[in-house]
Amino acid sequence: MRVDTTLAGRVKIINPSPTLAITAKAKKLKSQGRDIIGLAAGEPDFDTPDFIKRAAIDSIEKGFTKYTPTTGTVELKNLISEKFKKDNSLDYSSEQIAVSCGAKHSIFNSLMALIDNGDEVLIPLPYWVSYPEMVRICNAKPVFIRTEAANNFKFTCPDLKKSITQKTKVLILNSPSNPTGCVYTEKELAGIAEICVDKNITVISDEIYEKIIFAKSQHISIASLNKDIYNQTITVNGMSKSYSMTGWRIGYLGGPKDIVSAISKLQDHSTSNPASTSQKAAEAALSQGEEFICFMRKEFEKRRDYACSRLDKIKGITYARPEGAFYIFCDISRTKMDASAFAERLLEEALVAVIPGEGFGSSSHIRISFATSIELLQKAFDRIEQWMNKI
Ligand code: PMP
Ligand code: GLU
């Protein structure tokens, strides 16, 4: 066995993804016959629609099984360019677009292209588990912007200003957010944009949950607000959440030409193109997927409403109502347990899997995913309620 000291420093300072690990643990326990209900998963539970699968099968049968251009086929980039225009009022030519192996890869490549040793990257806390680790892999420093549950976990302009130093290079924005479901308004984004332009901070805007947004909330791309912020923003999106295509591994980004060209070089020498078949599937999704998105969004809203109505009745848990994505970030501090202990006991004693908040930057919260059927949610909340009454 290799001894630990032979490993590079960059891997010694990072942790495995807790979201992936706990989801895998819950699946394993289930496969061993334990009656676990998983509220941990960070992916829609719906099957990928048949017309998308069909497009992929057709592409294989027609022999579309070779390398494509590194950052995606012309056809797919044209569809992405149209999508950015139609949904986000953003003009990105194909040279400004890079298709990668998931939005995670797009964000990683963006950071690799932008930050040097010692640079600081601003990340609102709570954050999606991978952001700080990606920054650390790049030998840079994650700097967390504090938020308050009372403001739906959104940071304010004064919060942002306080976190900026001479070394600040990038801000990672995520709206709708994982794990809180908060959505920034146009006015809030305008304030953030003004500061970033003034301080010359590049924004990586992770918009992967764009299509899962509820009631009166509206998704706005920060890059669409004005030319200045457009010139210093990378807009990241992907197929995983909008079309229930997490396993296909297609993400994409739009941004300034010089950054996209640097990302293309990184991809040339690391992954090359994302899977050719998945690109064909993504073309089908982008051109015919509107109906599926509508269906999924409505389902998620029903589940959000149901989950919140159950949480309202459980003493000891408080939360901010999510406006998007499919997570509820619950404050469990009144139980006097830290999140890891809470999640472990909940799994062992009530057979419900959730993600403890430590990986998102808070030991007093757990993340509940409502990407599961109402029937299972009902069963899960019955168990949580009974268990909470006992402890
Ligand atoms: N950003 C956020 C906030 C996410 O929750 C996820 C989910 N894994 C991703 C990016 C990455 O998605 P993917 O790589 O599957 O496109
Ligand atoms: N983004 C999802 C989550 O937060 C998927 C897991 C991951 O990629 O970390 O659970």
Short description:
Helix content is 42%, strand content 14%.
Break the fold down into its secondary structure elements and pairings.
Layout: H1 9-12, H2 18-31, E1 37-38, H3 50-61, H4 74-88, E2 97-100, H5 103-114, E3 120-124, H6 130-137, E4 141-145, H7 157-163, E5 168-174, H8 186-199, E6 202-206, H9 227-230, E7 233-238, E8 251-254, H10 257-268, H11 276-288, H12 290-311, E9 318-319, E10 327-331, H13 339-350, E11 352-353, E12 355-356, E13 365-369, H14 374-390
Task: Describe, in plain words, how this protein is organized in 3D.
This protein is α/β, with parallel strands linked by helices and 391 residues long. The strands form three sheets. A seven-stranded mixed β-sheet has the order 2-8-7-6-5-3-4, with helices on both faces. The chain has two domains: 9-47 and 291-390, Aspartate Aminotransferase, domain 1 (Alpha-Beta Complex), CATH 3.90.1150; 66-288, 3-Layer(aba) Sandwich (Aspartate Aminotransferase, domain 2). Strand 9 (318-319) and strand 10 form a beta hairpin. The longest helix is centred in the last third of the chain and has 22 residues, at 290-311. The protein contains 14 helices and 13 strands. 4'-deoxy-4'-aminopyridoxal-5'-phosphate (PMP) is lined by residues 42, 102-104, 128, 174, 178, 206, 208, 238, 240, 246, 251.
